Amino acid sequence: SHIDKNERNEGKGVFWIYAATAGKDVQSILNVLLKPGDSVYFTRFGSVDEMPWVSAFEEWEGVSVEEGVSSVGQGNLERGLEMGMKSGVRVVVCGSLYLVAELYRMKRLI
Q1: pTM of the predicted model, to two decimals?
Q2: What confidence category does residue 95 fall into, taking pLDDT thresholds of 50, 70 and 90?
C-alpha cells in the first residue's frame, strides 16, 4: 500500500485516527490496516446531513488490535488530532469519508 511503501519510514509506525460506519466489519479492516509499531485512536463522526439512517460504529470495546499495535484511546476527532500531532509519526485519518468530511469542516477546508 502507499502507507507501507512511503510512510513507514525508518521503522516508525503510523498514528491512525479511525472511524467507521455502523455495520462495517471493523475487526477485519483493522487486521489489514494496522502493523506492529502503529498506534490507533478510535473516534466517530457526527450525524450526516439528510442521511439519518447513517450512523457511526461505536462498539470499540469488542475490537482488538494485534500485538505490537498500541490502542491509545477513543474520543472526539480533535483530541485524536492533538494526540497524533504529538506522536512524532505520520498521522492518517481514515475509515470513513464522513470522518474526513468532518475533518475538512473542522479545519474550514470546505
Answers
A1: 0.89
A2: very high
